[in-house]
Amino acid sequence: MAEENILSEKEITEIREIYSHFPLKSAACIEGLKVVQKYHRWVSDKALKELAAILEMSPDAVDSVATYYSLIFRKPVGRHVILVCNSMSCWIMGYEEILAFLKGKLGIEYGETTPDDRFTLLAIPCLGTCDHAPALIIDEDLHRDLTPNKLEEILKKYE
Ligand code: FES
């Protein structure tokens, strides 16, 4: 029996629509990865291979694009991904306190997901909002001028 495809017709159509705007199919790689991630939360090996076939690229080439971008996830993640800025300004302005709060509150380390699948905790370099450090992103939302108390309230919004 043939193995079922990971990518749906809807995803494939979306990817084809994107690469129709690029001179080369391979130039749409990162956008294709984003489509896969939008539907699956992360990019599995199987999904990556299917995308590579659509873009007429080798799976290794697609994988190197995927691993270059910190916002493409090659391992399963929770419903919400917390990306904590670990660059200089945030370090100076309270990064360690924020990280300790998150680790304690969620009971996980960097690279881990809470047992209820609610949050994944990851680090990210400077978010470009150093004058409002410490900062982090949850999914696509930027949160700045953080304190543990403020973060406690913010986390409640992400079920
Ligand atoms: S160092 Fe964290 S936003 Fe720039």
Topology of helices and strands:
Blueprint: H1 9-19, H2 29-40, H3 45-55, H4 59-68, E1 80-85, H5 88-92, H6 95-106, E2 119-124, E3 136-138, E4 141-143, H7 148-155
Helix pairs in contact: 1-2, 2-3, 3-4
The protein binds FE2/S2 (inorganic) cluster.
| Main pleated-sheet profile | 4 strands, mixed
Total number of beta strands: 4
Mean pLDDT, rounded to whole units?
A: 95
The Cα radius of gyration reads: 18 Å
How much β-strand is present in the residues? 5-15%
What ligand species are in this complex?
FE2/S2 (inorganic) cluster
> What is the helix fraction of residues, given as a range?
40-55%
State the shape.
Answer: elongated
Number of helices: 7
Separation of termini? Answer: 39 Å
| Poorly predicted sequence stretches spanning 5 or more consecutive residues | none
Structural class: alpha+beta
- SSE string, helix = H, strand = E? HHHHEHHEEEH
Biggest sheet, strands in spatial order?
2-1-3-4
